[in-house]
Design a protein that fits this description.
144 residues; alpha+beta; Immunoglobulin-like; 5-stranded mixed sheet; 9 strands; 18% helix; globular; Self-incomp_S1
Length: 144
């Protein structure tokens, strides 16, 4: 009988952490304390502007959060911060388009990017470059 006492407490703890994560994403709160590491994903528009060239747009989301469609200006850094979910399976993915070019891929996947607390994606004319906080970029994906 005593074990059933802890079930509501666990559910309440899970709900509280999930709400804290959503607040941090929506309102940019930097100092939410908790047991989980904070990650930040940056998407930087590194495309050189040329007259008549198509503009970059992208749409990022996770299973819990939809960050909406973005149209960053050249040089602009769109970023968001979050904490892992309780089971450590947080994943954010984005779909990118620029004129007739497109690409979709995971921009944060706990299984792949756990060591990356500041994850940078640089979008260029020839593809997508990834870096951790060192900002030493390596090409990961091409436009389709």
């Amino acid at each position: 009988m005593m074990n059933y006492f802890y079930v509501p407490l666990l559910i309440l703890a899970f709900f509280s952490l999930t709400q804290a994560e959503k607040h941090e994403i929506e309102y940019g709160i930097e100092d939410i304390s908790g047991p989980f590491v904070k990650y930040t994903v940056h998407i930087v528009n590194g495309i050189t502007p040329k007259p008549g060239s198509p503009i970059l747009q992208f749409h990022c989301q996770s299973n819990d959060d939809d960050l909406g469609v973005k149209f960053p200006k050249p040089g602009e850094d769109f970023n968001w911060s979050f904490r892992e979910n309780l089971i450590g399976s947080t994943l954010f993915f984005c779909s990118f388009s620029r004129g007739q070019q497109s690409a979709s891929f995971d921009v944060f996947n706990h299984d792949l990017d756990d060591q990356c607390k500041q994850c940078y994606w640089l979008v260029k004319e020839d593809g997508f470059y990834f870096s951790d906080s060192t900002k030493l970029y390596q090409k990961r994906y091409n436009w389709k």
